[in-house]
TrEMBL record:
<dbReference type="GO" id="GO:0018114">
    <property type="term" value="F:threonine racemase activity"/>
</dbReference>
<keyword id="KW-0456">Lyase</keyword>
<keyword id="KW-0663">Pyridoxal phosphate</keyword>
<comment type="similarity">
    <text>Belongs to the serine/threonine dehydratase family.</text>
</comment>
<feature type="domain" description="Tryptophan synthase beta chain-like PALP">
    <location>
        <begin position="13"/>
        <end position="305"/>
    </location>
</feature>
<dbReference type="GO" id="GO:0030170">
    <property type="term" value="F:pyridoxal phosphate binding"/>
</dbReference>
<dbReference type="InterPro" id="IPR036052">
    <property type="entry name" value="TrpB-like_PALP_sf"/>
</dbReference>
<dbReference type="GO" id="GO:0003941">
    <property type="term" value="F:L-serine ammonia-lyase activity"/>
</dbReference>
<protein>
    <submittedName>
        <fullName>Threonine dehydratase</fullName>
    </submittedName>
</protein>
<dbReference type="GO" id="GO:0005524">
    <property type="term" value="F:ATP binding"/>
</dbReference>
<dbReference type="GO" id="GO:0030378">
    <property type="term" value="F:serine racemase activity"/>
</dbReference>
<dbReference type="GO" id="GO:0070179">
    <property type="term" value="P:D-serine biosynthetic process"/>
</dbReference>
<dbReference type="Pfam" id="PF00291">
    <property type="entry name" value="PALP"/>
</dbReference>
<dbReference type="InterPro" id="IPR001926">
    <property type="entry name" value="TrpB-like_PALP"/>
</dbReference>
<dbReference type="GO" id="GO:0000287">
    <property type="term" value="F:magnesium ion binding"/>
</dbReference>
Length: 315
C-alpha cells in the first residue's frame, strides 16, 4: 500500500466523511507532561473512524457487486459505518452482530438501514453467519479491519492529523482488529517526520501485544473488557504492516480505561467510548512508568469513536 494509494483513498472518500476536529487540553497536557493532539473521530459520521474504511471499500466495488450489496460482521462501529456508507450510495448492507453488542449500536445500524443478524459472540460464529449470508444473497463480504481498502480508509484519520500537525513525535491509537493502527502506521511512514506509532490495548484483550512478541497472530482466551470495540483479533493483511511499522503496544487495566474516559468527559466536554479511552489511558500509563519518553513531546491521539450507551455508563 503506497503513498499514492493513501492519497487517492482520501480524495475518493472526502465527499462522504468529515475532516474531524483536532482538540487539545492544557490540563491533560500538564498531567502527562506532553503536548497532546486529539483527532476526534467521535465527531465522524456514524460516530467513529470506521466510516472512512467502510466508504472506501464500498466505493471500490463494481456496479455488479453493488447491486448485490455488502455483508460484514461487527460488534458495532463498523456495523454502523458500513450501513451508513451503503445507504449513502444506495446499496443493501447485511450486518452480523454478536448478541452481546451494545443496544445503542444495534439501534444505530437500524437507523442507517442495515439488516441485522444476531449470532453467538465468537469470531467463528460471526464469520460463519456472514459467509452464509454472502452465499444466499451474493453480497460482497467486507472485513471490518483485515481488508486493504478498509486499512487505507482508516489511515486517512492519521493522514489528516499529520497534515495539520506534521511535526508529531508519536501517534497513539487503539488496537482491535488492527485496521486503524495499520492505516495510521502507513500514514506516519509516508507523511510523518520520524513519527512513531504505538498501539493501546486492554490487558483483558491483549492479543496484539502478544502477537508482536511471538511474531504470529495470537488469539484471546477471554475478552472481559469494557472496551467492546477491541475484542477482535488481528488479520493476515494488517499484521505484517503492524509488525514492520508499529513501535509497540501498551496495555492498560479496566480501571485506567474508565478513569481516562471520565477525564475526557469532564475536562474536554466531549463524549468518547471506552475503546477510545484506552488510548489516553496508555499515554497516561506511559507518562508515569517512563516520564522521559513523552516529556515535552508532541503526541497525536486517535479518539476512535463516541458511540456510548448513555444508560449504562461505567462511572
Amino acid at each position: 500500500m503506497t503513498k499514492d494509494n493513501l492519497l487517492n483513498c482520501h480524495k475518493r472518500i472526502q465527499p462522504f466523511i468529515h475532516n474531524t476536529a483536532v482538540l487539545t487540553s492544557r490540563l491533560i497536557d500538564r498531567e502527562v507532561n506532553a503536548n497532546l493532539f486529539f483527532k476526534c473521530e467521535n465527531f465522524q459520521r456514524a460516530g467513529a473512524y470506521k466510516m472512512r474504511g467502510a466508504t472506501n471499500a464500498i466505493l471500490q466495488l463494481s456496479e455488479k457487486q453493488k447491486k448485490n450489496g455488502v455483508v460484514t460482521h461487527s460488534s458495532g462501529n463498523f456495523a454502523q459505518a458500513l450501513s451508513l456508507a451503503a445507504q449513502s450510495v444506495g446499496i443493501t448492507a447485511h450486518i452480523v452482530m454478536p448478541n452481546t453488542a451494545p443496544e445503542v449500536k444495534k439501534v444505530g445500524v437500524k437507523e442507517y438501514g442495515g439488516n441485522i443478524y444476531l449470532c453467538e459472540p465468537t469470531v467463528p460464529a460471526r464469520q460463519a453467519l456472514a459467509d452464509e449470508i454472502a452465499i444466499k444473497t451474493g453480497a460482497t463480504f467486507i472485513h471490518p479491519s483485515n481488508d486493504a481498502n478498509v486499512i487505507l480508509g482508516q489511515g486517512t484519520a492519521a493522514l489528516e492529523l499529520l497534515k495539520e500537525h506534521p511535526d508529531l513525535d508519536f501517534i497513539f491509537c487503539p488496537v482491535g482488529g488492527g485496521g486503524l493502527i495499520a492505516g495510521s502506521a502507513l500514514a506516519a511512514k509516508y507523511f510523518g517526520d520520524n513519527c512513531k506509532v504505538y498501539g493501546a490495548e486492554p490487558f483483558e484483550a491483549d492479543d496484539a501485544y502478544r502477537s508482536l512478541l511471538s511474531g504470529k497472530i495470537e488469539g484471546n482466551d477471554t475478552v472481559n473488557t469494557i472496551a467492546d470495540g477491541l475484542k477482535t483479533t488481528l488479520g493476515d493483511i494488517n499484521f505484517p504492516i503492524i509488525k514492520e511499522l508499529v513501535s509497540g503496544i501498551i496495555r492498560v487495566h479496566e480501571d485506567e480505561i474508565i478513569a481516562a474516559m471520565k477525564l475526557v468527559w469532564e475536562r474536554m466536554k466531549i463524549i468518547i467510548e471506552p475503546s477510545s479511552a484506552v488510548t489516553l489511558a496508555a499515554v497516561i500509563r506511559q507518562s508515569k512508568e517512563n516520564p522521559e519518553a513523552l516529556k515535552n513531546r508532541k503526541v497525536g491521539i486517535i479518539i476512535s469513536g463516541g458511540n456510548v450507551d448513555l444508560s449504562n455508563l461505567p462511572f
